[in-house]
Amino acid sequence: MSGGENRTALVTGASRGIGLGIATRLAQSGYSLTITARDPARLDSVADGLRAAGAPEVVPIAGDMADETDIARVTAAHADRLGPMTALILNAGVGTAGEIGDFPLRRFDKTVAVNFRGPFQLLQESLPLLRAGAAANPGRGAKVIALASITGVYAEQGLAVYGATKAALISMAATLNAEESGRGVCATTIAPAFVDTDMSAWTHEQVPPGAMLEVNDVVEVVDALLRLSSRAVIPNIIMARAGTDGYRA
């Protein structure tokens, strides 16, 4: 991509882990960014770091991806401050484990809200901005990249609800491609096994951090996807861990 292009991205869950890694790479590549996460103080600090890393403009909007009003504020802020959208990074999510027989329905509702309903609403509200971004650069188009999970592809005991929300993301992205890729807006889900982040700390006794994927592994995949032309559609990428059979988180 040439440096003269006005590239903008919206990144959810941008204050730590994979989201922060992706936002940092985008800043280094010259993207202006809208970033969102729940902690406003941490988000402001991250915004300062992203400006220092090279982002021409950073718009931090604290919010909860389970809150319809917060999601609307995020997309409105991006439209107002940055205009057309080159990339939408749907990274925010909650991890939850529990077997089907005794999974609390209140926790079910929260997981579905954050991991699927929120991303769906954000995508829906961002589509006009993505279409405008694709129209401004037909050769590159606009990209939607959603962080799913290998458990959305291969079932794993105790992860029915989490895996189901990630499977829903994968289906949503595939359908978006059927509906919008002809207009230059395409989507890819990334379905990794455990990545070494705070969200995976609960399983360190079974899977030590050194056996997990690195955050930068995911960042490199995102970076490559954003460089593709508008002619290329990659629906889903599975990232397995070395030393496994490739079918487990």
Describe this structure in words.
42% of the residues lie in helices and 14% in strands. It is an alpha/beta fold and 249 residues long. It has one domain (8-239): Rossmann fold. The protein has a 7-stranded parallel beta sheet with strand order 3-2-1-4-5-6-7, sandwiched between helices. Helix 1 packs parallel to helix 2, helix 1 (17-28) packs across helix 6 and helix 4 packs parallel to helix 5. The chain is globular and about 50 Å long.
Radius of gyration: 17 Å
| Main sheet: strand order | 3-2-1-4-5-6-7
Helix content: 40-55%
Helical stretch count?
Answer: 6
Q: Which secondary-structure class do the elements indicate?
A: alpha/beta
The overall pLDDT, averaged over residues, is 95
Low-confidence stretches: none
The ordered H/E elements are EHEHEHEHEHEHE
Largest sheet descriptor? 7 strands, parallel
Instruction: Find the count of extended strands (DSSP E, 2+ residues).
Output: 7
Distance between the termini: 34 Å
CATH topology, by name, is Rossmann fold
**Domains (count):** 1
Oligomer: single chain
Note the beta-strand portion: 5-15%
Q: What is the 3D shape?
A: globular
Q: What's the name of the CATH homologous superfamily?
A: NAD(P)-binding Rossmann-like Domain
Q: Tell me which CATH architecture applies here.
A: 3-Layer(aba) Sandwich
